[in-house]
Amino acid sequence: MVLTVVLSNGDSAFILEDSNSTVRAFTLVAVGVSAVVEAARLALGYSGNLREKIPQLAGLFILSIFPQTLLIVYLAYYSSRLPVDVVLHHIMLFGFIIPEIFISVFVIRSMIKSATTKLYLSSWYPMQDYKHR
Asked: What InterPro entries does this protein's entry cite (predicted)?
């Protein structure tokens, strides 16, 4: 595929001559970035869920929306060569990423509500320090 731009004086200029190598290079970068972002998402989700930390879960939510969703959409629709790639990326997108975005909104809201309640109650009923023996 050759992208041709016609200039105002009638001449044409070739901007992109070999898009196949460009798509391959961008796909390689997208897969690498997706792997790194996926590892960060898993770490943030794991630590945020176990420790009930709102910032880690918010980081998981942000990384799920951008760049992970955009990378999976690119890999599913624009760079797939085999039908199995399309199927696997659709499973990743509609089976994991999109439900995770909706569930994380619900979880973050409930954790904020719980943390606010704990803060409010701690101002009225301060906890006493007991030494465990």
From this structure: Uncharacterised_TM-17 (IPR019184)
